[in-house]
Each structure stands twice: as C-alpha cells, then as structure tokens.
Amino acid sequence: MKLRVKGLGLLLLLVLLALCSTIDVCDARRGKHWRPRSSPSSSLLRKKGKGKKGSSNRQHGSNRPSPKPPLSPPPSPGNGKGYQSPYQPSPSPSPNAPVSPSPVNGSGHASPKSPTPNCGKGNQPSSRPTPTSPQGAVFNVVDFGAKGDGVSDDTKAFEAAWAAACKQGASTVVVPSELEFLVGPISFSGPYCKPNILFQLDGTIVAPTSAKAWGSGLLQWIEFTKLNGVSIQGNGIINGRGQQWWTYSDTDDDKDDDTQYDVEFERMPQVKPTALRFYGSFNVVVAGITIVNSSQCHLKFDSCQGVMVHDVTISSPENSLNTDGIHLQNSKDVSIHHTNLACGDDCVSIQTGCSNINIHNVNCGPGHGISIGGLGRDNTKACVSNVTVRDVNMFRTMTGVRIKTWQGGLGLVQDVRFSNIQVSEVQTPIIIDQFYCDKRTCSNQTSAVAISGVQYENIRGTFTIKPVHFACSDSSPCSGITLTGVQLRPVQIPHYRLNDPFCWQAFGELYTPTVPPIACLHLGKPAGNNLQSYHDLC
C-alpha cells in the first residue's frame, strides 16, 4: 500500500513538472492584468513601431500617459515679442551652471531608470527618445545681481552677464520686463566674443544723470563693438535722460527753484554721448525696441556692414539739439524700415563712407528730415553711393529729403533715389545745398563734394517756406537731377514767408510737369562738365 501511495505521488510530481515546463512566468506578466500602465514594454513598442510613424506611445485603455521627453523649464522674465531663443534656463540655478540634458522629474534632477525584468533574453534598449541639448544658453542680468529698481547701479551685473554670453556664442542676454535698470557707460565688446549673441531687451535701461558718471565726457553711453551676428530686440526702452544736456540753466531766472538741478546740470560735460552705438560689427539687427531722450544721437552705426533696423521707435522733443534719430557712417548694406522717428535733428543722417542704404516705410517728424551729409567738412573727402529712400511720411519737419555738403570738400555723392515721399507742413521738402554751414559765417572755397544722379519721384504734399532749393557749386555743378511727379502746395503758416523754387548751377531733367513749376532747373548737362567717376574720386 505504501508503495502505491509513493508511486502516485511521484506520478503527480511528474505531471506538475511537465505543466510548469510549458509556462513562461515573465510572459505571463505581459498579459492584460500584468501590463504596466507607466510605460510600454520594448516588445509592444516594436509592434507599434511598424505602424504609422506619428502614432502615440500611449497604450489603449490607459488613462495615464506614458513618460514624455523632458520639457524646458519655464522661461525667465522678459521673453517678449520676437524672442527666438529655443531655450531658457530656470531662474533658480546659476546661469554659469551647465545645463543637464537628462529627463526632468519635477525637481530638476534626472529620473532614475526602473529595472527591466530579465527573462533570459537580455535587457531591451530603452524606447524613450533621447533629449536634445539646448541650443544656446540664456543669461538673465538679474541672476548676475542686477536690482532693476532704477536706483541701484546695475552696470557690473550687465557686464558679467555679457561676459558669460560672450564665451558661449549663440546665446542670449535677457533684460527682463517690468524692471528699470540704471546702467552707466558700458561697452559690450569683441572681437573675442563668439558670434550670434542676442540681447533681449524687454525692461527699461536708464542713463545716470550725475556728472560724476560721465567724467570729462564720453562719445557713447551703450556700445557694441567688433561683433559678428549681434542682435538687440524686444519691447524694452533705452532712456538717455538727455534733458541734462539739452538746455543750460539760466542763472538770472528767478522762477527756477530747483537749485540742485541747476548746479548738477552745469557740471555736466560738454561732450554728449550717443545713446546706443554699434562699431566695427557685421550682421547687426535692432528690432522692436524704443530709444528716447538721448543727449545726442539716439542710434549710431559706425563702420558696420549688414545692418537691419525695423519696428523701432525713437523719440525726443523737437527742441532737443543734435539728437539725430539714426546716424550712419562708414557703413554698408543697411536696411531701415517700419520705424517711427521723432527728434530734434535729422531723423536719419547718412555720412561719408556709406553705400547700399535702403530706407523705406518710415515715419519722420518732428525733426530735420532725412539727410545725406553734411559732407566734406574741414576739406575732407566724402563718398556716398547707392541710397534709396522710399515710402516715407514726413510731418512738420524742417526739411524733407536733403543733401548737404561743406565748401572745400572732395569726393562724390552718386546714385540717390527719393521716391514716394509724403510731406505735410514741411518747411522745405527738397534740398541740395553745397554751401552748408552750421555757423554764423563760413569762408568761401572753390572745391566741393560733387553730386550726380539724384532722382526725385512722387514727392507730394505741403510746404511752409519753399518747395525746392538747389544750391550747387560753381566749380562742381550738380548734374543728373531728375524730377517726376513732384507736387508740392503751399500752406501759409504765421511768421513764415513763402518762397518760389530756387536753383543755382543745378542741371537735369523734368520728366513730368511739377507743381509748382521748377523753371530754374537747367535742362541737360553743365557745359564742359567732366565729372569723374565714383571709382576715380572715391
């Protein structure tokens, strides 16, 4: 009997062993009731990978999403309109800390990997997509100690943020919105900076008003020098607070009780700084920002190539002396468009060494209009070529489109086109003046900067003093002046005397009748005119 029981037990054991040999425990875990909801297995992903390329990794019947690639931390303040940087660091870590590309679990650290069951077939590679590294670092000036209260000096914080961005390349310096930063004279300089740095300005930068900050006088307040691919953009404001320089206090004026203001003002240096200057740089973009109340020129480009200015607002009072809106010098391939300019001097001033300048869709006024020159001061050589100014509105400016040169200069202005200029109550809409002088008296000199090939097309609107003023040199008459569709009508303004068109040694063609008639223009070319080419003179 005992032998039978043992035999039966042995038989049962053999049957159980046979049944177990046909079951894969790990495969059983992949059944419906064992399927993990947090992430699909590698075999399931392989099956889904054969389907549509853009199919979701979320499993059927699951309300919980599968793990996603890491999301970028929330952007730091100030990423305004037009912000292009694809990545911004979290405000908490230091900007100098390296950014980890590891997946984020909410605390800023990498999520630990869950173990994969081993069924004897080896570990399967993870199906989670590899996160990409951020393209360019972001450096917020606040992270470098800037207070943004409009009182504390934040100059060093701006310098530190720039130094960090300069080493990275393709990086961004952020000036966040809703803060006001007091910044003294500063230079964001190369040439050892890596290219393509974005200066994202969404807050306000204000200039110091104490004489001590300016020493004996500086030519610029904020300067970007010797850079390649530098951009400044955003919704922010640069406020030069130039009232300190515009008008000197009158010691005999008993009505002014602000004695401290007068004393401080009188100590301001005579040399006035430009608010924002770019020097020796390539591929420069200025977009979206506002520049107000500069002590002198608001925005200047000197020895730059490849410049784009658009959607910019520049503003200062009409009586603020020498506050040009945009000043170009020794710069090539410049485009200025969709910009509003109101100031106390030229809306745009184009100086020697400029070529391939394109200005369009600009509003100008108040101010002195758009000017080429003055050129040739102190008997110097000046050369400007290939300038187009079109689709411009001018309101209550002193001049409209103007070319001005000093007596005694050398060089040539050539290939200039003024087209579709709408003027409203402009004193003198069209001017060429080869006898320009900003002093009470200037000595008569024989030589002059030559002017040739100037086109005026569709210059229309109203004037308050004189429609046209062509005052050209006896030794170097203006040639190649053409007028098409010029219609200028007078508007009587108190204390202004209306004058007829004026011409002196001006030669060219009238392609259509003008209003009023410009009968003083000499048709054709000047007798014995042997004007040299741009190549010969420049």
TrEMBL record:
SUPFAM superfamilies associated with the record: Pectin lyase-like
Which InterPro entries does the protein's record reference?
Glyco_hydro_28, PbH1, Pectin_lyas_fold, Pectin_lyase_fold/virulence
Keyword Hydrolase present in the record's keywords: the answer is: yes
Q: Which residues form the signal peptide?
A: 1-28
What are the subcellular locations of this protein? Answer: Secreted, Cell wall
Q: Where is the composition biased (Basic residues)?
A: 45-55
What superkingdom does the record give? Eukaryota
UniProt KW keywords: Cell wall, Cell wall biogenesis/degradation, Glycosidase, Hydrolase, Secreted, Signal
Q: What is its main location?
A: secreted
What is a biological process (GO) this protein takes part in? cell wall organization
The entry assigns this protein to a family as follows: Belongs to the glycosyl hydrolase 28 family.
This chain belongs to the protein called Polygalacturonase
Protein source organism = Oryza barthii
